[in-house]
Amino acid sequence: DAKTTQPNSMESNEEEPVHLPCNHSTISGTDYIHWYRQLPSQGPEYVIHGLTSNVNNRMASLAIAEDRKSSTLILHRATLRDAAVYYCILTKNSNSGYALNFGKGTSLLVTP
Amino acid sequence: GAVVSQHPSWVICKSGTSVKIECRSLDFQATTMFWYRQFPKQSLMLMATSNEGSKATYEQGVEKDKFLINHASLTLSTLTVTSAHPEDSSFYICSGSGVDGGYTFGSGTRLTVV
């Protein structure tokens, strides 16, 4: 499986934008880029995913490099509730039967 | 959206006893259920994958006779930790996946074995 590399931790001020980077230099052409986050003592929750084009949803934006070897999760205005561990995960084009393999993720600290 | 209800959210049991954790998919049919455990300050580690009506596939190093997984219906999967020991204390999380792909996680179960 292609691996991802993320910084161990990042810090942001409340109401500021946050850019969480992820490197995936060995990504294959059919791998989707998924982002999940895990709040303390909870199960992970889906944030966003994409293949080649940038994606936006109500939670965040995903910017994917043209060569797909890196991506950035963008939280437009961080709130205290966004403090979590963010995981960047690659999946095959067909999710059925494939488990998500979690790396160490990035622990985001949001300060007031 | 899709919801997986996981119970109990926490449990304390005595060493040597068994504990059952349930995960129910409330508004979708989970053809596949994944079970993870997470030790403090660590990431999620996949324990096993189960498809409805089939035996679970366990990851290397996970004892299938100790961690019994049942996935008898498309909406219910259970994990039973048998003869629990303190080293089994962990955060257990299930994740359901339906025919349209996607993953929905339960809220997790904090198991403490004393």
Can you tell me about this structure?
The complex is a heterodimer of chains A (112) and B (114). By secondary structure, chain A is mainly β. Chain A has strands at 9-13, 18-23, 32-38, 45-50, 55-56, 61-64, 70-75, 84-91, 106-111. With 114 residues, chain B is an all-beta fold. In chain B, strands 2, 4, 5, 6, 9, 10 and 11 form a seven-stranded mixed sheet that branches. A four-stranded antiparallel sheet of chain B has the order 1-3-8-7, with no helix packed on it. Chain B is built from no helices and eleven strands. At the A-B interface, loops of A face β4, β5, β9 and β10 of B.
Order of helices and strands of chain B: EEEEEEEEEEE
Q: Report the helical percentage of chain B.
A: under 10%
Strand/helix succession of chain A: EEEEEEEEE
- The global form of chain A is globular
Residue windows where pLDDT falls under 50 for at least 5 positions of chain A = none
Shape verdict of chain B: globular
* Structural class computed from helices and strand pairing of chain B: mainly beta
Q: Beta fraction of the residues of chain B?
A: over 45%
Biggest interface, CB < 8 A? A-B, 20 and 27 residues
List the helices and strands and how they pair.
The complex is a heterodimer of chains A (112) and B (114).
Chain A lengths: L8 E5 L4 E6 L8 E7 L6 E6 L4 E2 L4 E4 L5 E6 L8 E8 L14 E6 L1
Parallel strand pairs in A: 1-9
Antiparallel strand pairs in A: 2-7, 3-4, 3-8, 5-6, 6-7, 8-9
Chain B lengths: L3 E4 L2 E4 L5 E7 L6 E7 L6 E7 L5 E2 L8 E7 L2 E6 L8 E9 L2 E5 L3 E5 L1
Parallel strand pairs in B: 2-11
Antiparallel strand pairs in B: 1-3, 3-8, 4-5, 4-9, 5-6, 7-8, 9-10, 9-11
Name the descriptors:
heterodimer; A: 112 residues; mainly beta; five-stranded mixed β-sheet; four-stranded antiparallel β-sheet; 9 strands; globular; B: 114 residues; seven-stranded mixed β-sheet
